[in-house]
Write a structure and sequence with these properties.
Elements: H1 6-26, H2 34-64, H3 70-73, E1 104-105, E2 110-117, E3 122-129, E4 146-150, H4 159-163, H5 166-175, E5 183-187, E6 200-201, E7 205-206, H6 207-222, E8 232-237, H7 239-250, E9 257-261, H8 273-279, E10 285-291, H9 299-308, E11 314-320, H10 327-342
Parallel strand pairs: 4-5, 4-8, 8-9, 9-10, 10-11
Antiparallel strand pairs: 1-2, 2-3, 3-5, 6-7
Helix pairs in contact: 1-2, 5-10, 7-8, 8-9
Length: 359
């Protein structure tokens, strides 16, 4: 039974109610010496509290999408996470990296696969959503722009399927003419289960290479995508927002634009978003969206990035009047972010590229 299953939530609720009913019925019927009766009643109180707390925790998790599965909760969500085998250990790497991947149907129109990071030396889950136009006959030779969408921490790519209806938000934007059809790519930002702020950290994890190189090559090999940088953008929430700002500023040859929604503190450390804005002038556009009521990502973060950027770098800031650091607020940010990014990406078009494995 899944962690986010409705049946699991219902079972926990029944157990909590049963514990309360048992306490009410059995409280006056307990017999035996006073210490035994006291211990039994304390046990019933503890049982009621524990079952009630678990019900609340599961409900909060369902609403916010912190953990999407038991593997996610236990730290095993990225199936196969960890470094690839080195030559000489019985599983030598191929001479030419093979980025062909079989994406299987997952949920709500999304597809999922475990992607090998031949350059980063890791692997992890990547979830993909294609727009309704992608499978239509008249678009059979059309290539589409791509938006990498990065989750926060705690969280995984699966969180977007629980925390919000991400595909439906994008589909609505497309249907209403506010955004061009685009492919959404949801990669893990912790392929080795360590938070590096999406940087390459020797001895820990080369997450920047994973996101800006391996994921890009895998998606380009398996789907009909436009070439970068003008066919690619990156966006994210919370820690993923920090990562989106970082990657857009550090890899302008990969991404034409980035959108940081309620990002973490841009920091002053080497290769942080603020450091990159101060010390480089990439030809990239960045959106930083925040809420006046969000204590974890106040508008001052956006203002610091905007003040540090120099042409041709452009930083646009958007402020919401209300909303905290949560999925409900981020869900309200996504439509504007999709519209903003779409205006800075190439529209779907037929373009001669190397043959792709994508159909």
């Amino acid at each position: 039974m899944g962690l986010t299953s409705r049946w699991f939530a219902l079972l926990l609720l029944v157990l909590a109610l049963a514990a309360m009913a048992a306490a009410v019925l059995l409280w006056p019927r307990i017999r035996g010496p006073r210490p035994v009766r006291l211990l039994a009643r304390v046990g019933m109180i503890v049982l009621c509290q524990v079952t009630a707390i678990v019900v609340v925790m599961v409900a909060v998790n369902d609403d916010n999408g912190f953990y999407a599965s038991w593997d996610d909760l236990l730290g095993n969500a990225n199936a196969g996470g960890g470094h690839l085998a080195d030559p000489g250990r019985g599983n030598p790497l191929p001479v030419y990296p093979d980025y062909r991947v079989k994406f299987a149907a997952y949920s709500d129109g999304f597809k999922r696969a475990t992607v090998h990071g031949w350059d980063s030396g890791t692997k992890g889950d990547v979830i993909v959503w294609t727009p309704p136009q992608y499978g239509k006959k008249e678009y059979a030779h059309t290539r589409f722009p791509v938006i990498e969408v990065l989750h926060g921490i705690p969280g995984t790519p699966h969180s977007f399927l629980r925390g919000m209806r991400l595909g439906q938000i994008m589909a609505d934007e497309i249907a209403d003419g506010r955004a061009e059809p685009a492919i959404l790519v949801l990669p893990t930002i912790t392929p080795d289960r360590v938070n590096t702020g999406c940087a390459d950290v020797p001895g820990k994890s080369d997450v920047a290479t994973w996101l800006a190189d391996d994921v890009v090559q895998s998606i380009s090999r398996n789907f009909r995508t436009l070439p970068g940088p003008h066919g690619w953008a990156v966006m994210g929430i919370s820690t993923g927002g920090y990562c989106a700002a970082r990657l857009a500023l550090e890899y302008p040859d990969r991404f034409a634009a980035g959108a940081a929604l309620a990002p973490d503190d841009p920091g002053d450390g080497v290769r942080s978003p603020l450091w990159l804005a101060r010390t480089s002038t990439p030809n990239v556009q960045l959106l930083v969206e925040s809420s006046l009521q969000d204590p974890e990502s106040p508008p001052v973060f956006a203002d610091r990035l905007a003040a540090a950027a120099r042409p041709p770098t452009q930083v646009t800031t958007l402020r919401m009047s209300g909303g905290g650091h949560n999925w409900k607020t981020w869900g309200r940010m996504f439509p504007d972010a999709f519209t903003w990014l779409s205006a800075r990406l190439e529209a779907p078009r037929a373009v001669p590229l190397a043959p792709s494995a994508a159909s």
